[in-house]
């Protein structure tokens, strides 16, 4: 009969088996010493076995196991002490064994370590081929199942054999943050080789992709026959619902699922598509499943009302990105239970939790409700001051709460994170939204009056204003009364979560908005805090398309020329549209902001607004924007309000986010004093020194001149100044001074946070606590390993996005910059799917937090844990016990906001706490 015991290896009769207790190896040594003692007394092994109630065979087996356990323990201890640079003699004295035995144990241990090291090195070498470089960065050790130190040593062995390690950074699409790479390559591989072949980099886990056969995992879209579509043109009512795609209810392939509206793209026939907001209707004629509303005129061919799909360099439909938009493809179950691809392609992406960030009902409610400087700077100064103060006070209470945290490592981490967000807030200058302000997508309800809005989440009869970005001034902000009794609205979008209904005239006032996904901020305005003014007479009946049509051969925005006979823009061979629109839109938007702040008369603002209306549609409709600039005297306006014809942003509001080109740099390393100035708390950078030498031969003298050109990177003017007042125009305005003071307050908070962080020293870990909480520490280590294992996958996703975008640039060399950014985001999402990259946040249990607080977790390990933990959960743990629900500072801020009309949901969001936490705190008083 075989017996298995969990306590240890050795066993004797009686209550306690050999090997049980706190140190089973101690029992092994005790057994051996007893055997030795009995032998010295003259007993034979047979007699000794009988005294232990064992057979001779069991005795020999037990004795061998005990010897092996003793040797194994000695080898472990010898190696541990040798790694601490102990001498062999000192080790022998510590363990009570001869120095010769120490050498023997060390040789055996080093041989085992060497074998393991060589096996690891060979494993890595096998992964490096002529077609693959190897990612050996952070987290790789978890894929191989070894320690970080063993991985580093194995890499060092291969480097000694001629393999080359290269390091570089890649900007992550969407965030702008850099992902660092450490790559091991075959002998002779150069740094340019790696940069030019990033698609060859693999992780040891064996991540592969399909060799570039497809880019973004977009299935070829399902085409809808144009026979199923009716087009309603401008004169027939299409203009009043421009951009709306009406769907027949109950058609299985056109179902919106649980949503009642969505922003979609629908492929039609061979190479056309519909673009707009989809919603149901009940008045479609027989044989028609889709009605497309457009402000265009009927050409006799309904296909002309539809957009052409994107094409590649070979003039074929780009099946990876046919609509030029980020989309989520939908699937549905047909009547036979088969899963099929829907023709409805939802615009927008998903966040890491799988929730939509836009595109269909519920997605827009997640958008920020903060007030932009572009809007608030055109409002009364008192309102701007009030909302900026609220934003600052919320930020300050957050800082004050972090300062009360009891764990120094957590406190330092949160202070560093706070400083980063405070610096960002100083650049973006967003203010707290007014009570109950929310983002909504607009839908057409043309039975509403010109002063009405259907807004089901606001009170019937309540006064609200709608704000669209960008807008020229208060004359483009309609003030409306909520009418939630409208029959048409209640039939099609009753209780819509994040949509409001307005008629086409109201949409026209909203900077010429249409219904293909345009959004507005809805702000309750019963107290008339938001200022609105009557529409400008100079803008009445102004139609950019009729006023500034293209003429034959005209250079159009984005490049190319207008061919009047063919009715389209033509480009030179191998060329396509450039990205001038975004620059021109930003330029005219800044001009309008600067003019408004400096008190320009409405007649001059009207000129700038008229031109902006032309610019926004110039590329889409081939408008003569250059003639518009001349007719509206834009050059003179720039001279008067921006210091010259080529002048740019001139006030703090427009300058804050304006680009500032600086020499490429990095944060100052610890060896040079660290990234934070120890006196001021400001970030300190050092230039990388990267760049190139430009060689010129002077025509007259033949002299060869060499000029060093440093590599540049992009920042903003607000980020680059220590004092926001340096951005104020001359002589300056009160609204600029209000914003400058706000920005400086945020910058000061950021500096205070960094200064406190670098002076917050980590505590020493406690060996006794590590033993007491060994199960909790082991659990945290396991969770950390799982979280860190995502790092190589995320790096693979970033590389996939980089190489995919590079290939797209090669096949579409003239694609506008904003289209490249869409492709980058789509490629990153697909790269994450392929690599299995998914965040695994660490959920810290109360007992694990006890282990952390008791010092059972090292400073290094805790720092790693915090990189992957829910910092709000950690903050709640780390608050002093009397503030475990909400700090006094946050509670005071909550009461103040409640008194100013904010509802509990808005307050909870602003303060970063759960609604239940807020409710409990307010109830406690």
Describe, in plain words, how this protein is organized in 3D.
The chain has 925 residues and is of the alpha+beta class. Among the domains are: 89 residues, no CATH class; 136 residues, no CATH class; 91 residues, Barwin-like endoglucanases (Beta Barrel), CATH 2.40.40; 112 residues, no CATH class; 70 residues, no CATH class. The chain contains 31 helices and 26 strands. The strands form 7 sheets. Strands 5, 6, 7, 8, 9, 10, 11 and 12 form an 8-stranded mixed β-sheet that branches. Strands 14-16-15-18-13-17 form a 6-stranded mixed β-sheet. A hairpin with a 6-residue loop joins strand 24 and strand 25. Helix 10 packs antiparallel against helix 11. It is elongated and about 120 Å long.
Features:
925 residues, elongated, 31 helices
Question: Topology, please?
Answer:
Elements lengths: L23 H17 L4 H7 L4 H28 L4 H8 L3 H29 L5 E3 L4 H5 L3 H13 L3 E8 L6 E8 L5 H6 L4 E2 L26 E4 L11 E5 L12 E8 L3 E10 L8 E4 L13 E2 L18 E7 L5 E9 L25 H4 L4 H23 L4 H21 L9 E7 L7 E2 L9 E5 L11 E4 L4 H6 L6 E4 L1 H6 L9 E6 L19 H4 L13 E3 L4 E3 L9 H18 L4 H20 L3 H7 L2 H9 L9 H4 L3 E5 L1 E3 L17 E3 L3 E7 L6 E7 L1 E5 H4 L13 H25 L8 H6 L1 H15 L1 H22 L5 H19 L10 H8 L5 H10 L2 H8 L9 H12 L4 H8 L3 H10 L1
Parallel strand pairs: 1-4, 5-9, 6-8, 13-17, 14-16
Antiparallel strand pairs: 1-3, 2-3, 6-9, 7-8, 7-12, 8-10, 11-12, 13-18, 15-16, 15-18, 19-20, 21-26, 22-23, 24-25
Helix pairs in contact: 1-3, 3-4, 3-5, 4-5, 5-7, 10-11, 10-21, 10-29, 11-21, 15-16, 23-26, 23-27, 24-25, 29-30, 30-31
